[in-house]
Amino acid sequence: MACGMIGLLGVLPVTMLESCMTLPMLRTTSKNNNIVISKTKLAAEKKIFVLRNDDLQYDVLLVKNLDNTYYAMYMQCTHNDNPVQANDKGLFCTAHGSTFDLEGKVTNGPATQSLKKYLVSEDADSLTIHIN
Ligand code: FES
User: Fold this and answer.
1) What is the pLDDT of residues 24-35, one digit of tens each?
2) pTM
3) Per-chain mean pLDDT for the chain
4) Minimum CA distance residue for ligand 1 atom 1
5) Cβ atoms of residues 70 and 63 within 8 Å
6) Sign of CA dihedral 113, 42, 35, 50
7) How many angstroms separate the first and last alpha carbons of the chain?
8) Does residue 79 have its Cβ closer than 6 Å to ligand 1?
């Protein structure tokens, strides 16, 4: 169900409404096939971030694990290369209805392959997403 429809009905549980909340979107730049992002740009209370980069056709989803490590995935549907949308529950493609969990695994087809994941390394001040 589209978030706009949920708002019209006004009777759905709060958890469904929360899943419609907009994720923080950060503009990034890449260098040497890496996206480097300062940790100060990542709000401590947030766990999921959409990274937009002019060098990439699709956004990158950055997810913080419970142990404060990170992983990232490319927001390109593996079915037919459309962009996927994300919320705090998972990712979905509006083209033909594929859905993915927050680890990028298919939860509903027609897609059959997981989203492309990227290695994320970090130092004291920043994260590096290896996009090559
Ligand atoms: S392109 Fe995403 S489900 Fe078909």
Assistant:
1) 999 998 888 899
2) 0.83
3) 85
4) 80
5) yes
6) positive
7) 35
8) yes
